[in-house]
Design a protein that fits this description.
Shape: globular
Bound molecules: zinc ion
Radius of gyration: 12 Å
Structural class: mainly alpha
Helix content: 10-25%
Strand content: under 5%
Oligomer: single chain
Length: 67
């Protein structure tokens, strides 16, 4: 287990480390966030919640339910 790694920025998806496009993380209104208009994948949310460290938003690519 690695210790003392630098905390990932809140703007990065915990699943793929890409920009999660979270409005809150970039200081904008949460009502502007993509997740407010999309339905989120529960499995992805669960995976993100299981990651260590502070909770972070997942990105549209990982979180959006594709039907
Ligand atoms: Zn992602």
């Amino acid at each position: 287990m690695l210790i003392n790694t630098a905390p990932e920025p809140a703007t990065q998806c915990p699943l793929c480390d890409q920009d999660n496009q979270c409005a809150v993380a970039t200081g904008r209104e949460s009502s502007n966030c993509w997740c407010m208009q999309a339905s989120l994948d529960n499995a992805a949310k669960q995976q993100a919640a299981n990651r260590s460290g502070p909770p972070r938003c997942i990105c549209p690519k990982c979180g959006r339910v594709t039907t």
